[in-house]
Design brief:
The protein is mostly helical. It has helices spanning about 10-15, 70-94. The longest helix is centred in the last third of the chain and has 23 residues, at about 70-94.
Length: about 90
């Protein structure tokens, strides 16, 4: 087993590392002062705003994405739906 696993991972070294009693610090005032060379800042954002892109991009052999609906066509459909709803409401209450 010694040929495959480094001595660092031995039970003996584990016991040496944790043999001493580690005393907890009571509050922040007991923390050691450290001079950092670089300022500590928040990490950069990883995700952009909005719906995330698919993980996989289709190849040219798989065919297109089907295209997107034109904005005008969608607006017309929405307008037709609202017109029908308004007509039903007028008939119902008049």
């Amino acid at each position: 087993m010694e040929d495959f696993v480094h001595e660092y991972y031995s039970v003996e070294n584990f016991r040496k590392a944790y043999a001493r009693l580690i005393e907890p610090l009571r509050d922040k005032t007991k923390w050691p002062k450290v001079n950092l060379e670089l300022p500590v800042v928040a990490p950069l954002g990883k995700r952009s705003v909005g719906r995330q892109k698919k993980n996989r991009i289709k190849s040219c052999l798989e065919g297109g994405s089907g295209g997107s609906k034109s904005v005008i066509k969608v607006a017309e459909n929405n307008n037709e739906k609202t017109k029908k709803m308004e007509e039903k409401a007028k008939k119902k209450y008049h």
